[in-house]
Amino acid sequence: MVERRAPRWSELRELVRTRPRTGDATDRRLARAVTVGDLREIARRRAPRAVFDYTDGAAGREIGIRRSREAFERVEFRPSVLRDVSVVDPSTTVLGRPSALPLAFAPTGFTRLMHTEGEVAVARVAERVGVPHALSTMGTTSVEALAAAVPGARRWFQLYLWRDREASADLVARAAAAGFEALVLTVDTPVAGPRLRDVRNGFTIPPTLTLRTVANAARHPHWWVDLLTTEPLEFASLRSWGGTAAELADRVFEPAATLADVRELRERWSGSLVVKGVQTADDARAVVDAGADAVVVSNHGGRQLDRAPTPLEELPAVVAAVGDRAEVYLDGGILDGADVVAAVALGARACLVGRAYLYGLMAGGERGVQRVADILAAEIARTLQLLGVPRVADLTPDRVRLRG
Description:
Blueprint: H1 9-13, H2 25-31, H3 36-46, H4 49-56, H5 63-73, E1 75-77, E2 92-94, E3 97-99, E4 103-105, H6 118-129, E5 133-135, H7 143-149, E6 155-159, H8 165-177, E7 182-186, H9 196-201, H10 211-219, H11 221-228, H12 245-252, H13 259-268, E8 272-278, H14 281-289, E9 294-297, H15 311-322, E10 327-331, H16 337-345, E11 350-353, H17 355-387, E12 400-402
Parallel strand pairs: 4-11, 5-6, 6-7, 7-8, 8-9, 9-10, 10-11
Antiparallel strand pairs: 1-12, 2-3
């Protein structure tokens, strides 16, 4: 029999721990997030539904993005033990220059919609961390303004080819004059994908005040106050806009683009040329033959053609086809540093992340983006240690396999 007794205060006192309240509400909120998934939940609570769904959603039935996540879930690591991993080196080179992590911040459109600090906040974090940042054609900060705000950052400019070819050429010239090191041509968007969440939410650019949005504003007053008391939301590269994101894309983007456009850009652009949206080995060969220095194996985060090839599954074939002539990157579904390690082991030079940092931006502005970068960096380092791999450069395909 166990004899019961009342605990003494002197014994309980050693067990009681109070957490000091440090920083402001944003710092405390972000400190509670230990994964990108945690930041996603904070973002979901803090942003209006239409804004969160624009970031979180994908095309059609959203099968493509689910398959991308499921592919990472099927990853099985094959670690080595008794290796000295007291210090690991997560750095690599991207387009011939050092990158502190095998990461780049992907181009995202309408970024100030998630938080009015927008692209400048994201680029500041990229500069501090030491990774590239890509500004979107559909961005809400101009190439000139971003260059002035983060002169030391590695700045890439993402280009959609427009029906108005003169306007496209002008954007390229402005990016060159502003000192952007790389041009990222996105080729998987001849027309907009069917983003049904946006349709059901009545999502427009800029947000329109309807009975639904006014009711939603009552639940997210901080977001609306932030939007309405800062500079108006504008697209830095567009003269006019309005309507849904899909209507805007269909009105502006060029569905008649061909490989000849890649060759023409190669002749005009003296910096590095990256082609984003490659989904087969054959297309990878074609764009590298046309002058691309790098390709991004990408299905646009599942936001264009639903049930398109899953990037992680296509990666080895693309690396085998062009990896000796061009750098190969991957994006789509990356929410964990272990995802990045798996992709690099399968042959990617680096990964592009977009949704992940947008969750952080919605959760806490620039500090939220920094929290995402810190989480991913820590996860990459710990995964390397547990794999028994001291350097990103030592990752090889035998370290990982896809189950099933």
